[in-house]
Specification:
Chain A: Its main location: membrane. Chain A: It is a multi-pass membrane protein. The complex is a heterodimer of chains A (269) and B (286). Chain A has 269 residues and is an all-alpha fold. Chain A is built from 15 helices and no strands. Chain A has a domain of 170 residues: Orthogonal Bundle (MetI-like fold). Chain A is 76% helix and 0% strand. Chain B has a single domain, classed as MetI-like fold, CATH 1.10.3720.10. Classes of the chains: A mainly alpha (269), B mainly alpha (286).
Chain lengths: 269, 286
């Protein structure tokens, strides 16, 4: 059938275009500089070497970059999940004056491009003395309007009878939030946590703006800066890229459906 | 329930959003009306001076033009390519699912990594692209150094990174189309292409709007890819609004001027969004 042939031809070309760069990257991190220059048309190393993976530690402040990335993405994600779900609990379950205004303000922050606030936030951090600090990297990003929105939608779908049963047993709101709602919201927690972590782990502009000192840089900023100036050894940079990709790749293969659910409803990635 | 309770629950989030998003939005507008420099003794009021300066700044004109070209070209190609993939890979068998994962994977890789890897792939000395074209006797092209080719190359890499995202969203949209639509059309004797034209595409319109919208806004804000691959060069031929804003604000410390650029970006985002909503609604009427 010609349509079928056409279809697999199209998908096949697409697959080659997607997979070859990924294979080339991973293979390239095991190649020598001489191999890369001598056989630019090659995909697989002529001789395997760990030189790139050793160079990552000696030519870059890699441990520091990796540690900063783990702290920045890890702590920020944990705080975001906590703060967003608390805020969403109030918006979904409590009746109070000003609730609609609060929700509306959250939505406004979703619509304005991040770049609009970047410069004033930089000035704020400058005055607070928070540039080149962990609190400067973490605190401004420790909540996300998208997370609040997603948690709120999810909480509204949880039957109210469950809260009421807990209330009859004498539970307060803090207890209901922590013991009833959060345990039921695991899919929402997984989605918000994975998307936030990926987003923060991959972010370049924010760490670049907050940290000018190499000591406080994260992996993407470090690779971008060192790739531009000091390190000219391609295998080292490719090895750095592969290592920085690893946690996200593992999370992707273990929890793909949460990525798909979150990304395809929010566009956030 | 005490009155303070809801505000205790919302406190951390609202405090952060207030201090680091809402108030900065106001401040950003305020800065854009001043000749504002971080740490300077005086920040003189210039009214719309920064905006008129932008209009006459050739670098701004180029950055705005590049941003619009990147956005229009990326979005058009992405939606076409993504739709093709989605139609080819809708079924739930293992082969489709594995292939979909492969296409989706670049979505979760950082733009920094994607940019760096493609910069190497396109390098005339070590890159696979140059190596293969030389092996075929075509000679190596210096993609990112050429004023004519750098921008299309950036667009290509942007498409490479995001095609899987468009595909995955459209697959979800395709699956949501009720099977009865197809059965009814088949009873009327519709053939495959007619099904596509009269059933699938109209039913897919809301999803298409969503995905077009997201891809457009992301392309308008493109930074990482350009910063890593070309730094805006050669000779500003790939400079975007955000790379210009970053340079003005954080390398040249022209804070007020950069804030004005960010407001232009915001206005462009709003205009494009309204325009898209209009187009899609207009089509709904026919």
């Amino acid at each position: 059938m010609p349509t079928k042939t056409l279809k697999w031809f199209y998908v096949g070309i697409g697959l080659i275009l997607v997979l070859v760069p990924i294979v080339w990257t991973v293979a390239g991190s095991f190649r020598t500089e001489a191999d890369l220059f001598g056989h630019p048309a090659g995909l697989i190393p002529h001789q395997w070497t760990l030189h790139g993976y050793r160079g990552v530690w000696s030519q870059l402040p890699f441990l520091r970059l990796l540690g900063n990335s783990v702290l920045f993405a890890g702590i920020t994600t944990a705080l975001t999940v906590l703060f967003d779900s608390m805020c969403a609990y109030a918006l979904a379950r409590l009746n109070f004056r000003g609730r609609d205004v609060a929700f509306w303000l959250v939505l406004v922050t979703l619509m304005v491009p991040f770049q609009v606030t970047l410069i004033p936030v930089f000035v704020e951090l400058f005055h607070l003395g928070w540039l080149n600090t962990y609190q400067g990297l973490i605190v401004p990003r420790a909540t996300s309007a998208f997370g609040i929105f997603l948690f709120r939608q999810f909480f509204m779908s949880i039957p109210r009878e469950l809260d009421e049963a807990a209330r009859i047993d004498g539970a307060g709101h803090l207890r209901i939030y922590w013991r009833v709602i959060l345990p039921l919201a695991k899919p929402a927690i997984a989605t918000v946590a994975l998307l936030n972590f990926t987003n923060l782990w991959n972010d370049l502009l924010w760490p670049l703006v907050v940290s000018s000192s190499p000591d406080m840089q994260t992996l993407p900023a470090g690779l971008a800066l060192f790739g531009g100036q000091h390190v000219t050894d391609h295998a080292v940079l490719l090895a750095g890229a592969v290592i920085s990709l690893l946690p996200i790749a593992v999370a992707f293969f273990l929890a793909q459906r949460y990525f798909v659910a979150g990304i395809s409803t929010s566009g956030l990635k | 329930m005490t009155k303070a309770r809801p505000w205790l629950f919302m406190g951390p989030s609202l405090l952060i959003l207030g201090v680091f998003v809402l108030w900065p939005i106001v401040q950003s507008l305020w800065y854009s009306l001043h000749d504002w420099t971080v740490g300077a003794a005086e920040q003189p009021w210039v009214g719309l001076g920064n905006y008129t300066k932008l209009v006459h700044d050739p670098q701004f004109q180029r950055a705005l033009g590049n941003t619009l070209i990147i956005t229009v070209a990326s979005t058009a190609v992405l939606v076409a390519v993504g739709l093709g993939l989605a139609l080819a890979l809708t079924s739930e068998n293992i082969v489709s699912r594995v292939i979909r994962s492969a296409f989706f994977f670049p979505t979760v890789i950082s733009l920094t990594t994607v940019g760096m890897v493609w910069k190497f792939l396109l390098d005339p000395d070590i890159g696979l692209v140059g190596g293969v074209s030389r092996a075929l006797g075509l000679g190596a092209v210096n993609w990112l150094q050429s004023t004519a080719l750098a921008l299309p190359t950036v667009i290509f890499v942007n498409v490479w990174k995001n095609a899987g995202f468009v595909m995955i969203v459209l697959v979800a949209g395709l699956k949501a189309i009720p099977g009865e639509y197809y059965e009814a059309a088949a009873l009327d004797g519709a053939r495959r292409l007619q099904l596509l034209r009269y059933v699938t595409l109209p039913a897919l319109r809301p999803t298409m709007l969503f995905v077009t919208f997201i891809v457009t806004i992301q392309s308008l804000q493109l930074f990482d890819l350009v910063y890593v691959m070309t730094g805006g060069g050669p000779l500003f031929h790939t400079d975007t609004l955000v790379t210009k804003l970053y340079r003005d604000g954080f390398a040249n410390y022209e804070t007020g001027y950069a804030a004005a650029t960010s407001w232009v970006l915001f206005i462009v985002v709003v205009l494009v969004s309204v325009f898209q909503l209009r187009i899609f609604r207009y089509n709904d009427a026919d």
